[in-house]
């Protein structure tokens, strides 16, 4: 049985946004008490699955007491890491982390890159991107970095043209050419796969695609290229915790040959090891 604690977005996300990013009242929190277990906040798929593999197969031999907490949103893992409720998190990319720190005044830093989840365009209506009709509606994740990634994906495949240099900060306002007159529906990233019945296509993050039983390597109309992609998913901690011996042990295990083989065998190209 998986020894994880599932945390619901509805309960935690609202509280996390208002907690003021201050430490909890206890003198010893999850981050500072290095004698206790390392509690890691993670998205359920594939992050918590990878961590659970480490916990069940590698951690004990390495002398690591690992606890996994699952979160279903992209906000609470960082606020929980900032306030010390957890000692680390594993769910995000460097561009997302940089943007989050800038907007929220947090101090989260990367420890090690682990894997890439290619962003993909999916549809229940058509089987190839160029079959989208004029005026088609495409759902996009609404957070800054992932929306930019989604638009860059569409631009890379000739569906739109973007202003030069906008990168992952791109929004629909940066579209300079839209030959199919596509319209865009901006949704929380977790909602994009659920929108497929209501839109013509949706750009979905890899973890949410897998949770929705989509197979990115097979089902995506178009998929982000892995080569040169800056959007690797990483293990992160609050600044100052990088040298925690528990964190160092976990970083080594997450980039071990055993984890690489687990990723290759379980996700069959839908998740790609970054090491």
TrEMBL record:
Signal peptide from the UniProt entry: 1-23
Topological relation to the membrane, as annotated: Lipid-anchor
Record InterPro entries: Lipoprotein_NlpA (IPR004872)
Family designation: Belongs to the nlpA lipoprotein family.
Organism: Streptomyces atrovirens
Keywords tagged on the record: Lipoprotein, Membrane, Palmitate, Signal
Keyword Signal among UniProt keywords: yes
Protein name in UniProt: Lipoprotein
PROSITE patterns: PROKAR_LIPOPROTEIN (PS51257)
Gene3D superfamilies from the UniProt entry: Periplasmic binding protein-like II
Main location: membrane
Higher taxonomy: Bacteria, Bacillati, Actinomycetota, Actinomycetes, Kitasatosporales
Entry's localization field: Membrane
